[in-house]
Amino acid sequence: MRQKVIIGNWKMNNDKKETEDLLLKLSKINCKKEIKVKVSPSYVNLESAVKILENSPIEVVAQNMHYEEQGAYTGEISYKMLKCINVNSVIIGHSERRMIFSENDDIIKRKINTALNNEMDVIICFGESLEDRNKKKHIEIISKQLDVIISDLKINQWKQIILAYEPIWAIGTGVNATPKQAQEIHKHVRAEIAIAFNKSLADSVPILYGGSLKPNNSEEIFSKPDIDGGLIGGASLSFEDFNSIIKSIDKK
Ligand code: PGA
Hints:
Layout: E1 4-9, H1 16-27, E2 35-40, H2 46-52, E3 59-62, H3 79-83, E4 89-92, H4 95-100, H5 105-117, E5 121-126, H6 130-134, H7 138-150, E6 161-165, H8 179-196, H9 199-204, E7 207-210, H10 218-222, E8 229-232, H11 239-250
Bound molecules: 2-phosphoglycolic acid.
């Protein structure tokens, strides 16, 4: 059975106190072993997040990192800095990074390589724009993005990888992809991995959905066979909503 995963991406939200309050509440929840829960606070709160979650199965994830190990890169954070505070997972390729911070395929690929080569787990995001979908080009666009992500990966690196399908038009808009739309993409992605590698590997990769996931739509979205969990923005800022989304994956 594939790992079920729920990740809260807090983006540039929550100051120190808000972060700690939310983490303290989360540290008390009982999540089943089959469900992996991760949270991604801002950089400045990562270290305290690791401490607060020390005795909890919830893992701390960075929202971004640079592809170089160190050097003259003002404002950037390296994998070494993350690993030395016990943050061993990172989100790469989020559409906000691609669009607002102009991260292109080359940058994303380099970041993925640096993370994988340094024993970090990677949550890799991809997804089409509304324009792509309206022009019925979404499958083509997803295939292109996926190709960049998976070309020259080694089979043994897949155990460090979680994929996240995040249609740009669904992020933060309150308009989620329908369960059918999301399932279509997840199935397509799994089929492409099976062609590029093999079916049993494709069947083992967790593929999450992200984009306006809320307590009132998560159960139905998670019920689809190729959807293994969610990457949650807005709703992960509320303990009640996030906890209820965690509970809904349990019904899968
Ligand atoms: P949202 O964000 O849940 O607020 O739509 C999802 C994401 O950006 O990962």
